[in-house]
Design goal:
single chain, alpha+beta, 6-stranded antiparallel β-sheet, 5-stranded antiparallel β-sheet, elongated, cell membrane, histidine kinase, His_kinase_dom
């Protein structure tokens, strides 16, 4: 394979373009399939939640109707009078039975309504009650109705003359309307078969189904093969809890994986749970997989054919050019090659023909440039000697001043000599903090002779950091700026101080003066210059006359990063403070 690729540019280009084209196609196919699969599942979830909402609306209406009916029964005068009297009254019983019958008329989900007096009086129901396995919550929690107004039971059986049926009961106490004293109980029995019919008619894909659970996640209604009053965990162990009012979760893995949707009803604590087997998604996803595979295969075949045709068109002129050059003698002048096309390959041949005609001329230019380079090297050597000549001249002036007992001139010339020597520093960019401070003191010494009694200078540098290294010529331009633009423009004597200290974040330098300060507009402009693209700005507006604030800022940013840039703080009429921080790392230690 390696030998096959190395022998021909055509092979390399063909393989490269095919791979470059096929990889996106394959990823597009995979992405499209996953997107379609995700949309299928999302669509099923949305449809399932809509189904649960429709069931919730039906059940909420039924529950609210039953609860309103129970409140109506409590306040009914006939019910109140019957429960308050200790004797049985057949007329009252008949009236109440007729009333209950009319109340439950046309409501197919009501299986029975029972009014149960206290004491020995017989209960009243509109369907004659033969037996029931109903157990009230007060048998286990005697004080339940002190905290709750009513209670929904689980599924239980009830026997009447119509037969046996499963019911769900709303039970609540009946208290007298005048003294609020307990005088009886009422039960409204819902036909579980009617609720289960509504639940089983709900459609969730093809094989999905819906369950109705009570507040303890026991099954109230569902498919016929699901046993009521069983907890959901009996069928789905380790299913976990339902968090929030609604949502979905995945249960199981592989082919047994199921999507479980749930929604807690607004009235009561019942939950509607929809279960969709993942096989429903797979049956739809297989169609998308087949469609995607066919589309990608056709696209791959088309790409391969098109790439081979395109590479042939591109490489044939190059192959002819290679063959022509291969047969040309290197010792003879390069002959012109005929141009057969105007595309990039044709332009390449035209350029080659032009190149061959200029070879002699370029050879002469190379020879001429070599001679110019030697001359430039000689001039650079001469220029390199000039600083040494300057140092020697300043040293002679220094000794002449000392011989004439002119200490001011001697001090000024000595400081200037040290200042220039440090500035050049043999091209080195870094120095110790101690050397940087000495360089600033030389500058201050020269300026103090030029401007006597105009300023005071103070340095506060921790001894532990004086041997650490930093970029040179950082502090002197800041002191010069403070002197020229701050102190010399104010009346009387001013002061300049340099403070340097070290902590975990780095070495912090501060140059402070009590000069005239900076006007707010000028300060905002200066901060903008230091914050927005300092290097590009520097190229657009070069600084004249040595180092300025922007030069120092740009050098700090280029060597130490944006966090090391200058921070300017000034108050007009009070003074200026300029700060910067360099990292205290191995790079700053000598």
């Amino acid at each position: 394979m390696k030998k096959w690729l190395g022998r021909s540019l055509k092979h390399k280009l063909s393989l490269l373009i095919i791979v470059v084209a096929l990889v996106p196609l394959l990823f597009l196919g995979i992405f499209s399939y996953n997107l379609a699969a995700g949309l299928t599942e999302e669509k099923a979830k949305i449809s399932g939640m809509n189904t649960l909402r429709q069931l919730e609306a039906y059940l909420d209406t039924m529950v609210m109707d039953v609860e309103n009916m129970s409140l109506f029964l409590i306040g009914h005068n006939g019910v109140q009078e019957y429960l308050k009297t200790p004797e049985n009254n057949f007329v009252q019983q008949t009236t109440i039975i007729n009333f209950l019958t009319n109340l439950a008329f046309s409501k197919n989900y009501i299986a029975n309504i029972i009014i149960e007096p206290l004491g020995d009086k017989a209960p009243i129901s509109f369907k004659s009650l033969v037996g029931s396995d109903f157990t009230d919550i007060t048998d286990s929690i005697p004080n339940y109705y002190d905290q709750q107004p009513n209670w929904w039971s689980s599924v239980h059986q009830q026997w009447t003359f119509d037969g046996v049926r499963k019911v769900i009961t709303l039970a609540r106490p009946i208290r007298s309307t005048d003294k609020f004293k307990l005088i009886g109980k009422e039960q409204i029995n819902l036909d579980q078969a009617v609720i289960a019919k509504q639940i089983t008619q709900a459609v969730l894909e093809k094989s999905g189904f819906v369950l109705l659970l009570d507040e303890e996640n026991r099954i109230l209604a569902g498919p016929s093969d699901w046993e009521t009053n069983r907890p959901l965990s009996h069928y789905y162990p380790d299913i976990g809890s339902f968090e929030g009012g609604s949502g979905f979760l995945d249960y199981g893995e592989g082919s047994d994986k199921k999507t479980i949707l749930y929604k807690t009803m607004d009235s009561g604590n019942w939950k509607l749970v929809g279960i969709i087997p993942s096989e429903e998604y797979r049956s739809q996803n297989r169609y998308f997989l087949t469609l995607t595979a066919v589309a990608v295969s056709v696209a791959i075949l088309f790409v391969i054919i098109f790439v081979i045709f395109l590479i042939q068109k591109i490489t044939n002129p190059l192959s002819a050019l290679t063959k022509f050059l291969k047969n040309t003698s290197p010792d003879e002048p390069m002959p012109a090659i005929p141009v057969k096309s105007i595309d990039e390959v044709g332009q390449l041949i035209v350029s080659y023909n032009k190149l061959s005609s200029r070879i002699v001329k370029l050879t002469d230019e190379v020879k001429w440039n070599e001679s110019l380079k030697k001359e430039a090297d000689m001039q650079a050597l001469q220029i390199q000697m000039n600083p040494h000549f300057l140092y020697n001249t300043l040293s002679s002036i220094h000794w002449l001043a000392l011989m004439n007992h002119d200490t001011k001139i001697a001090e000024m010339v000595g400081s200037l000599s040290d200042f220039l020597r440090f500035s050049l520093n043999n091209g080195q960019e870094y120095c110790s903090i101690e050397q940087e401070i000495i360089h600033v003191k030389n500058y201050v010494s020269i300026q103090s002779i030029r401007y006597p009694d105009k300023f005071k200078f103070q340095v506060n540098v921790e001894a532990s950091i004086q041997e650490k290294f930093t970029l040179k010529l950082l502090l002197q331009p800041l002191v010069e700026n403070a002197m020229l633009h701050g102190l010399l423009k104010r009346p009387g004597e001013g002061s300049i101080s340099i403070d340097a200290k070290c902590d975990d974040q780095g070495i912090h330098f501060t140059v402070t003066d009590d000069g005239i300060g900076i006007a707010p507009e000028r300060l905002n402009w200066l901060r903008t210059q230091l914050s927005e693209h300092p290097v590009a700005h520097e190229k657009e507006r070069p600084t004249k006359g040595g180092y300025g604030l922007r030069n120092v800022h740009n050098r700090l940013v280029l060597h130490y990063g944006k966090e090391a840039g200058l921070i300017v703080d000034s108050t007009e009429g009070e003074g200026t403070r300029i700060m910067f921080t360099i990292p205290d790392s191995e790079d700053t230690v000598g």
